[in-house]
Amino acid sequence: MTSPSPRPAIAIAGGGIAGLAAAFFLRDRGLDVTVLEGSPRLGGKLAVSPIAGVAVDEGAEALLARRPEGTDLIETLGLDGQLRTPGTTASRIWTRGGLYPLPKRQFMGVPADVDELGATGILSPDGAARARDDLRLPPTPRDGDVSVAGYVGARFGPELVDRLVDPLLGGVYAGRSDELSFEATLGDLARASRQHRSLAEAAASLLPAPAAAAAGGPAPARPVFTTLAGGLGTLPAAVAAASGATVRTSAMTRELARIHGGWRLTIGPTRAPERLDADAVILAVPARPASRLLSGLAGAGPASASAALAEFRYASMAIVTLAYRAGAFPGPPEGSGYLVPAVDGHAVKAVTFSTVKWPHLRPEGEDLVIVRCSVGRLGEEALLQRDDRELAGLAAADLAAATGVRGAPAEIRVTRWGGGLPQYTVGHRDRVSRIRAGVATQPGLAVCGAAYDGVGIPACIASARLAADQVLAYLETRDALAVGQ
Tens digit of pLDDT for each residue in 433-462? Predict the structure, then answer.
């Protein structure tokens, strides 16, 4: 087999954090790596820009620090000195006409202590009483994957799902718990639930013991969340630079084909297509583009993977960022923000008081409060069709109703993420297994990104590491066979 270039060439379709991380993991391997990004900029759902003179993320604004892939990459890049921790992560729920504190002992809204849950006031008296049934109900049978709402609702009742679990999952997936997979979105809890009769007991098994917390037990090595001083939107450029890869923007990958010795990608506009040959390819694009690229390949494997990828649905959303003078609020905003149940019918699904959650964003000597409002859930495309001014007005009105803030914001910014979040619906893990099995039939091909093992930054980086390792293993095997011939 001959190589298309003097050194093995790797093409990565997609310049989001997964594609860039894959390029980084291939550095220093004697490879020619090219990242092809279809849009005019790198970074995918990571972007940062100023509002009221402060650099604030437009997309993801925090990464899970207890999962090490993100912070490890940041440390390897030499950016660990820029890591910042939250001033507070205490959040609330805006429902039933008030702001109520989240239970401290809960796992993605599933309570570990039903007495504490009842004391929060989030649920009605009837809803709180129904939630207590979990402690005495027999085990709920589960044969294969089920929806979050189906399983959690069977244990605690629908009101807890609507007012607590759904808002927390909606903040991650912009989806609905009656469609989301219990196994894929709450995997640790799903596994623990098989060892406990009560789901509250299963949730408690995943949390520190309350006695240890009350006694001031050892603090965790890392906080739950972290970010970068200049915003997580600065990470893609740093990863790209450190990877040493050739990075091209406005270079959409339109076709993928097998050729003797490797792969051929067709990129660029249809009126002036360009061909790029490579020994191996990593697809770090969303599910639908990946499905389209695989559909052009012969064989049952690519056909199966393409069909599974085509099953994905994506939710669109927008981030409305509002800058206020502190005096506009009746008092200092409490906590890091609040979540809003879909059942209450508000446009905004989540609010973050950015300058409270991240004290480093607060300009010295200025009384500025920056608020991020997340708008849009699966199926709410009509809401997102409103223009920026109207969408910002809806967000500001919801904020005023919840907090009592007065007057118009001093500055607004609306960032739209069309089709931004893959939905991990029931059967997700089987779907991903079919995709990976089909892709594995094609030597020198791998996939990575938010569609597979998690939508967060660390999960995307982990999938990039897996894809890079698969490509390296293929090249090593190919070269070993060539030497033996």
Answer: 999 999 999 999 999 999 999 999 999 999
Q: Give which of 382, 374, 378, 329 is closest to 356, Cα–Cα.
A: 329
Q: Which residues contact 153 (CB under 8 A, 6 or more apart)?
A: 160, 161
CA 457 to CA 385: how far, in whole Å?
Answer: 28
Among the listed residues 455, 434, 449, the one whose alpha carbon sits nearest the alpha carbon of residue 174? 455
Please name every residue paired with 116 in a beta bridge, in sequence order, or none if there are none: none
pLDDT digits (tens, 9 = 90+) for 200-259: 999 999 998 876 545 455 554 457 899 999 999 999 999 999 999 999 999 999 999 999
SS3 assignment for the chain? CCCCCCCCEEEEECCCHHHHHHHHHCCCCCCEEEEECCCCCCCCCCCEEEECCEEEECCCCCEECCCHHHHHHHHHCCCHHHEECCCCCCEEEEECCEEEECCCCEECCEECCHHHHHHHCCCCHHHHHHHHHHHCCCCCCCCCCCEHHHHHHHHHCHHHHHHHHHHHHHHHHCCCCCCEEHHHHCHHHHHHHCCCCCHHHHHHHCCCCHHHHHCCCCCCCCCCEEEECCCHHHHHHHHHHHHCCEEECCCCEEEEEEECCEEEEEECCCCCCEEEEECEEEECCCHHHHHHHHHCCCCHHHHHHHHHHHCCCEEEEEEEEEEEEHHHCCCCCCCCEEECCHHHCCCEEEEEEHHHHCHHHCCCCCCEEEEEEEECCCCCHHHHCCCHHHHHHHHHHHHHHHHCCCCCCCEEEEEEEEEEEECCECCHHHHHHHHHHHHHCCCCEEECCCCCCCCCHHHHHHHHHHHHHHHHHHHHHHHHHHHHC
The answer to whether the CB of 234 falls within 8 A of the CB of 77 is no
- Domains belonging to the chain, first-starting first, are 9-44+232-312+425-484 (3.50.50.60), 102-212 (1.10.3110.10), 314-422 (3.90.660.20)
Token code pair at residue 452:
């597979």
d(CA 379, CA 398): 20
Evaluate whether 267 touches 276 at the Cβ level (below 8 Å): yes
Residues with Cβ within 8 Å of residue 410, at least 6 apart in sequence: 52, 323, 324, 325
Round to whole Å and give the CA distance between 400 and 42: 35
User: Which residue is it, tokens 């879909």?
Assistant: 342
Question: pLDDT-based confidence at 484, cuts 50/70/90?
Answer: low
Rounded to whole angstroms, the Cα distance separating 312 from 5 reads 36
Token digits for 170?
A: 């909606």
Structure tokens at 463: 């999938």
